[in-house]
Structure formats: structure tokens, C-alpha cells
Amino acid sequence: MYGNAYIDPNDKANSILAGEDPQKLEEFENRIARGEKIEPKDWMPKEYRRQLIRMIEQHAHSEIIGALPEGTWITRAPGFRRKLALMAKVQDEVGHAQLLYSAAETLGKSREAMINDLITGKSKYSNVFNYPAFTWADACIIAWLIDAGAIINQVANAKGSYGPYCRALDRICTEESFHLKYGHDNVVTLATGSEIQREMVQAALIRWWPPIMHFFGPSDKISQHTEILMKWKVKMASNDDMRQQFLDMYVPKIWDLGLTLPDPLLKKNPETKKWEYTEPDWEEFKRVINGGGPCNAERLAVRRHAEENGRWVREALNNVGSKYVVPLA
Amino acid sequence: MIQSLDPRITRAEIEENNSISPLKDLDQWETYEVFHQKKRGDQHMHVGIVHAPNAEMALLFAKEQYGRRGVSVNIWVVCTRDVFTSDYDDTDMFDVSEKQYREAGGYKVMEKINKYKKANKI
Ligand SMILES: [Fe+2]
Ligand SMILES: [Fe+2]
């Protein structure tokens, strides 16, 4: 494709690959096509590096910010065992952020730079965490269904081409199975409990359904750019495919508990075997991702507060002889 | 002042536009490579890194990050800059396709025995 004589200057794919050594690019693409992983010091196209940093960094930020709405409920979780379990889950999420920051670092962006971009609002994180967890039931719905969505995404990405990201995701997915089970158990407890508990979990589900439908993002635009990212195994599944997989796995489980979802059009078409649903409100999605959601300001202010208040500890411990080198893997 | 659903956040009296000076280089310290042994008798395996100001803190963080689920008996940490590595571009130095004499499969004894037996009708 790059060896062809005629290059259309308006073709976006050409500008993505502009300036890349065609022979190295071919070796790189062949390696991925053979199913081999790319490691940090390998040659890689600039766009591959740029997209992976963006993706892994956003993923890391999502883990860190995602710990906030759930962390809110640790002190008020019903019973000692649930407090312990939620603390363990929140610690896992922060640990996931650390693993992901490390993977992104191997591509050449320092952790300081990533944190700076998070707290100034330059980098994004998963939109769902800009919504509040009003009740204990919201925390339960997050632990079950948001984590379920995250697992679908992470399992797909774990088969990608960048070694350090795949390794981080393998570790993460192992822990996610606990989160999913813990969340399901909590939702089942509420749904099979008293009338008040059932109402509480039903209300939380209604609140969280729109953000859940937003979770995988709008339908992908079919572009050469997306095609290249799929060929490079950076993007592993389309947003719509992941949403379908989610609906297939979880809507039956939700209905099984006698809970209802706030979408009268939601059903599986027996012929196409695809789920049909009301198109999510993508204007709302854009508004929230650009800072207009109910919790955006709070989330970032809390992060800045934490960074600022921990700074003196980090400085006090700093070792004068230290010198940064990029982590190995 | 942020009025949060989380009473702890409200109590911290956080300003909504609390801008802070950016994190400087090495704010997050340098990195240590972590090796962990799942059970006695196993090899120590590289599992990832931690950021830490010194080796003792690196061990503490490594325990939290890689050893919090009861599948470890021992951890090592090594400062990343003390690790010397080979280069993926030099992978061809590991090519042993012409070194069959190093492999068990490079010795075809049965062929020789069968040839001998056939020749001598044993
Ligand atoms: Fe996570
Ligand atoms: Fe999780």
C-alpha cells in the first residue's frame, strides 16, 4: 500500500504514515500480522505511539477517577465485610492505574506529564465517572455493570499488539473477575431484598442506564484511520460490537432479577440477532466529556487537592541521586 | 467550595478552581523493576515496575501492587537504571538454526541403529 506510485495528497491515511520508513513500516506490520507483540524499544510508526499513549493514558486516568465515586461509599457501605470488599476493589482500581501509567511510560511519556495533563483537564477519562453515585445502590450498579463494560473492553484490548499494555491488561482482567462478582452479589442482594431495597436498586439502574449506553462511545466512523488502527491491533473491536456484546451478556441477567430498563425499544431482534435500542443522546455525551457533567469539576479539584497535599511527602522522600530512565517493560 | 455527596470531600473545603503548580520531573521518583516468586521452588518472575524513592519503599509498594492476593512468597526489586539489557534489534544473535549439535534432536541414534540392523539382518 505504501509502495504504490501514486499518493493521493488528500488521503488522510497518507498523512498518518507521512515520513515513515517504508521498509521498517512493512517489517512492523508483518510482525503484527504474524501475531507477534511490539516491545517498547522496537521501531514503531509515530501514529502508533501517539494513539497508544493517548489510549493507555486515558485508561489509567479512568481507573484513578473511577475510584472516586466508589470510594465515596467505603465509609457508608452496609456492614464490615462490604467495607473491606469495597476498599479492596478501590485499591485494585488505583493499582490498575499504576499498571497502566507504567505501560504508557514505556512509550516515552512520563508519569508526571500524564498526571499534569489529567489535573489540568487536557486528558480525558471515561465519561461515566462524571456522574455521581447517589446511593449505595449506585455504587453496586457501578461495580457490576460499569466493571462489566470495562471487562469487555479490556479483554478485547488484551489481544492487542503492544506487549506492555497486554501484560498490564492480563493482570487487570484477573482482578476484574472479583469486581464483577462482588458487584453482582451486591445487586442481587438488593434485588432479592425488601421492597425498599428493590426500589433503591431499580432507581439506580434507571439513573445509570444512559451513562452505561454511552460507555463504549458513539458508533465508529468508518475511516482509513480506524482501519489502520485495527490493522495495527491498537483498536480491537468496534464500539458498536462491544456495546452489542455487553447487552447480550447483561440485559438478560438484569431482566432475570425482575428489574426494568428505561428503554421501551430495547429488545433483541431474533432475525438479525442484534440488540435494538433507542439511540443514546450523544449531545449529552459530548457536553459531559467536555466538562459539562455533574461531577467533572469536583473530580479534577479532588485530584489536584490530593496531588498538592501529598507533594511535601514525595519531596521529603526524594532521593537526590535518583535519575529517571524509561521503565523496561 | 465543593459541596460533595461525599461528606469527607465537603469537609476538606476544596476550592473548585484550585489550580496547582505542575508536577516537576522526578516528582513520582524513579522506577524499580519487580520480580516475584509465587511459591518456593519457582523462579522469580518479572511482573512490572513501581515508582519509589528508594529500594525499601520500592519493596513496600511492590508488595502492595503485586503481592496483595496471596500468590507470593518473595519479592525482589532492582532499580531500572541498574538493569543491562540486550537489544531486540540483536535478536539474531540467539539464532541457533545451525547449531543442531547443541540439541538432543541433533543426534539421530535410531537411524544409525536401524541402518546397522538392516545391513546385518539382525
Ligand atoms: Fe479497573
Ligand atoms: Fe474494576
Tell me about this structure.
The complex is a heterodimer of chains A (329) and B (122). Chain A has one domain (32-310): Up-down Bundle (Ferritin). Chain A is 63% helix and 1% strand. Chain A has helices at residues 12-16, 22-33, 46-71, 80-105, 111-119, 136-157, 163-191, 195-214, 224-231, 239-256, 282-292, 296-317, and strands at 267-268, 275-276. In chain A, helix 3 (46-71) runs antiparallel to helix 4 (80-105), helix 6 (136-157) runs parallel beside helix 8 (195-214) and helix 7 runs antiparallel to helix 8. Mean pLDDT of chain A is 94; it is low at 1-7. Chain B has a single domain, classed as Ubiquitin-like (UB roll). Chain B has helices at 7-11, 55-66, 109-119, and strands at residues 30-37, 45-52, 74-79. Chain B is elongated. Chain B starts with 6 loop residues before the first helix and ends with a helix. The mean pLDDT of chain B is 94. Classes of the chains: A mainly alpha (329), B alpha+beta (122). At the A-B interface, helix 4, helix 5, helix 7 and helix 12 of A face strand 1, strand 2 and helix 2 of B. Bound molecules: fe (ii) ion (FE2) (2 copies). One fe (ii) ion binds at residues 63, 93, 96, 150, 172 of chain A.
Give the topology.
The complex is a heterodimer of chains A (329) and B (122).
Chain A: H1 12-16, H2 22-33, H3 46-71, H4 80-105, H5 111-119, H6 136-157, H7 163-191, H8 195-214, H9 224-231, H10 239-256, E1 267-268, E2 275-276, H11 282-292, H12 296-317
Antiparallel strand pairs in A: 1-2
Helix pairs in contact in A: 3-4, 4-7, 6-7, 6-8, 6-10, 7-8
Chain B: H1 7-11, E1 30-37, E2 45-52, H2 55-66, E3 74-79, H3 109-119
Antiparallel strand pairs in B: 1-2, 1-3
The complex binds fe (ii) ion (2 copies).
